[in-house]
Specification:
single chain, 16 strands, 9-stranded mixed β-sheet, alpha+beta, 313 residues, 3-stranded antiparallel β-sheet
Length: 313
């Protein structure tokens, strides 16, 4: 049963510290594997059962069931419900001056790009276009603030970084964009284009422009598999129209469409797609290591710099 995870990271003024939520969205299917998977939406748990091997005899201590807990289970949920639960609060915290990140993680073909970007129908638009619409509605309601929004769109392909909104086509870029740690502005990508978007329409046009430059390929599990990690970032700058102070609040919201984890035995990848799969799985492993390190109390070193993805985020 293909499933995908949303990892939602935000900061709120009330909490004063980082809060991470993990949400499972199940992909709708006509033949649900009810004998193997048990979903309890109320408790936020997913149970997995696997039959024991008969050939191992009567005395068999093999584990046959597992249970995993999450902050929320979105079972057969609509695009709107996914947005409301996963993104609404994080947008509010970003407008208050806190950085936020939403990552969509899962195996190849689970529907990550559909969840983040949506389908051809307006009804099925994904988290990113809904976030853009909601953000500009918020801007229009805040008449006492001058809010500027700039957009960047980065693709990480085989550990090379490409600017999807550059005037130079991605095919002609070298991919040698570097990440720098500035003592004032923090982590930033040197030479990355930040495009001013005054309206919702301009922001959506930048999103569609970047999407057309993404790297995709076909394999046995997915006809349009994303072969790269993409980070769509909204850079928000707020200043008061009524206060005389020159205080400017900067924040950013990262919306990340991760490439899917793959088992090459199932995808039948070879040649270029096999090489891409190797880089994808490697970077996702580094992402896992960073998450595990962050959860360990007293851990001094967090291995952010192991991959471009973790360093950027």
């Amino acid at each position: 049963k293909p499933q995908e995870k949303f990892s939602v990271t935000s900061q709120t003024a009330k909490m004063g510290k980082q809060a991470v939520k993990v949400v499972i969205r199940t992909r709708p299917t006509a033949s649900f594997a009810s004998r193997n998977i048990e979903i309890d939406e109320a408790a936020g748990t997913v149970g997995v059962k696997v039959a024991k091997h008969v050939e191992k005899g009567v005395v068999n201590n093999q584990q046959d069931s597992w249970k995993f807990s999450f902050d929320k289970i979105l079972h057969n949920a609509t695009q709107e419900n996914v947005f409301e639960y996963c993104t609404r609060d994080i947008i509010n915290s970003v407008m208050e001056g806190y950085n936020g990140t939403l990552m969509c993680y899962g195996q190849t073909g689970a529907g990550k790009t559909f969840s983040m970007c949506g389908g051809n129908n307006y009804k099925f638009r994904g988290i990113i276009p809904r976030t853009i619409s909601n953000l500009y509605q918020f801007v229009q309601s805040k008449l006492d603030q001058a809010i500027t929004i700039r957009i960047s769109f980065v693709e990480i392909y085989n550990e090379l970084m490409f600017d999807l909104l550059s005037t130079v086509p991605a095919s002609e870029q070298t991919g040698e964009i570097t990440i720098q740690d500035d003592p004032v502005t923090g982590i930033h990508v040197k030479g990355l284009s930040l495009n001013l978007a005054n309206t919702e329409e301009e922001a959506l046009n930048l999103l569609f422009e970047g999407e057309t430059n993404r790297t995709v390929a076909e394999h046995q599990l997915n006809k349009g598999s994303s072969r790269s990690h993409c980070v769509f970032t909204l850079h928000v700058e707020c200043r008061s129209r009524v206060e005389s102070s020159e205080k400017v609040v900067h924040s950013k919201l990262n919306l990340v469409d991760l490439a899917g984890s793959e088992r090459t035995k199932k995808t039948g990848s070879s040649g270029t797609t096999l090489r891409e799969a190797t880089y994808i799985n490697k970077s996702l492993t580094f992402l896992e290591q960073v998450v595990v390190a962050l959860c360990e109390k007293g851990r001094e070193h967090i291995p952010y710099r192991q991959s471009k993805l973790t360093y950027l985020l």
